[in-house]
Every structure is written in C-alpha cells, then in structure tokens.
Design a protein that fits this description.
Layout (H helix, E strand, L loop, with lengths): L13 E7 L3 E4 L2 E3 L6 H12 L3 E7 L10 E5 L2 H12 L4 E4 L6 E3 L20 E3 L3 H8 L6 E8 L7 H12 L3 E6 L10 E8 L4 E8 H15 L1
Parallel strand pairs: 1-4, 1-6, 4-5, 6-9, 9-10
Antiparallel strand pairs: 2-3, 7-8, 10-11, 11-12
Bound molecules: cytidine-5'-triphosphate and calcium ion (CA).
Cytidine-5'-triphosphate binds next to helix 3 and strand 9.
C-alpha cells in the first residue's frame, strides 16, 4: 500500500528535472551565482516520484534537501549541469529545466586567489556566454518523442507584459512547454506562493496555476501527461 493515495499517472516514465542555481567560479574561493533556492525543482521531483515516475534530479547548489526516492546528481556550474542533464536525458521521457542557469561565466578562472590591488584600481571581469541547455535539448531531442519543458521568471517592463515576454521566450526556445512565473510586485520571490501560466511552443496558454510550489508542480505534470 502507498502512504499517499493519488494517481500513479507517471508510472513507467523517466523524468529529468534540473533545480537550483549554478555557480560560476572566478578563483578558488569566489563565484558568480544567483538566488535560486531550488524549491520549485525539488517540488517537481517530489511530486513526480509520488506519481510513480523514476526521477533524476540534477541539483545545482540546493538550499533545501532533495526529496527521498529520487536519483540526485549534484553539479556546481552551468557546464557541469549541461553534461549531467544531457547524460540523463538520453534515457528520459521528459526534461524539465527548472534550474537558474548562468547566462555567462568568467572568461578565465584564476588558479590562485585574486589579490586586492595595491594601486587601488578595480579589476574588470570579462564574461563569455554559456550554452543554452534548454534550447539545445529542444533542438536535438536526445530521445525520440522526448518532451522538453522550460521555466521563465518574468517581470513586466516598458517592452511588454509578463505574458508578452513569456510568449516571445516560448517561441525563441523551441520547448514544448514554458512555465512562466510572474515575479516582482509582491509575487514569486521570497514567498512560498507562486502564480504561473503554462504556454505551449506557440505561446498559447495551456494551463494556469496559483498556489504552492507543489500545486505548480502538479499543474506542470498534468500538462506533460496530457501531451503523452
Ligand atoms: N536556460 C538554460 N541554459 C541557459 C540559460 C537558461 O537551459 N544557459 C533555461 C532555464 O533553465 C529556463 C529557461 O532556459 O528553463 C529560461 O531561462 P531564462 O533565464 O528565463 O531565459 P533566457 O533565454 O536566459 O532569457 P533572459 O535571462 O534574458 O530572460
Ligand atoms: Ca537567463
């Protein structure tokens, strides 16, 4: 008997979830990072496992513990995350990119700690672009029929609303689903409550969810299941 009664509608599926935020080293003691806790990705992994899936969680610097019963692959950098996700994706029915992946990394990593300068000048950090893992997965499809799902945190600005930015990103990424999270204006960050819109690859709304990160995870897996 199962402790939690509920649908086992992901049984027989292998799902890969990336979660957390990457760290890009500058020297042995410093990195460029972001504030992602990994809570949404961990919720996705936990809910998928509860619904019967085999789960691989590619975990970048999580601030919360991973759920029991999932395979955890720890990574630090965007390059390590890319390698780990691609390795797991060869055998996956769906890849969900919930991680906050650094767009850029320092062009070079110093082998020794960078010292403060005696002449009081400030160093400049040169950056180079990281591979867009989501767009690459969507373009390649490492396994036939594999679904690829992205996440995007958006604020509205002078160039468009949350939904307009989300639609443009959905078209640009080529993923099957893009989960757009409205942040700012008292939503998203630092709260346990999210408000999301799920778009398909053409930018059409296929679902909306408000509530906890577990509620959002449930809505995402429903949308994935409906595509299978
Ligand atoms: N992503 C990725 N690889 C990167 C950057 C982002 O796979 N190098 C993925 C994220 O995991 C997320 C999706 O792309 O699923 C959207 O990330 P986001 O930062 O919103 O998109 P960008 O295209 O980087 O756009 P911007 O940062 O300018 O909003
Ligand atoms: Ca980005």
């Amino acid at each position: 008997a199962f402790a939690l009664a509920g649908p086992r509608d992901l049984a027989g599926r292998h799902v890969v979830v990336s979660a957390g935020g990457t760290r890009e080293p500058l020297d042995p003691v410093r990195f460029l990072g972001n504030r992602s806790s990994g809570r949404q990705g961990v919720a996705l992994a936990r809910v998928a496992a509860a619904r019967g899936a085999r789960v691989t969680l590619v975990a970048a610097n999580l601030a919360v513990p991973p759920p029991a019963g999932v395979d955890v692959v720890p990574v630090e950098t965007a390059a390590q995350l890319r390698d780990a996700v691609r390795a797991a994706a060869k055998d996956a029915d769906v890849v969900v990119m919930a991680a906050a992946v650094a767009d850029y990394r320092p062009a070079s990593v110093q082998g020794a700690k960078i010292k403060k300068r005696a002449d009081r000048s400030a160093p400049a950090i040169e950056l180079v672009e990281n591979v867009d893992v989501l767009a690459e997965l969507a373009g390649e499809r490492l396994r036939e029929g594999q679904l690829v799902v992205g996440f995007a945190a958006e604020t509205g600005d002078d160039d468009g609303s949350v939904l307009e930015h989300g639609r443009a990103k959905a078209l640009r990424k080529g993923a099957d689903l893009l989960v757009v999270n409205a942040v700012g204006e008292g939503r998203g960050f630092g709260t346990d409550v999210n408000e999301v819109v799920v778009l398909d690859g053409a930018g059409q709304v296929v679902a909306t969810a408000g509530g906890t990160k577990d509620d959002v995870a449930g809505t995402v897996w429903d949308a994935v299941r409906d595509r299978w």
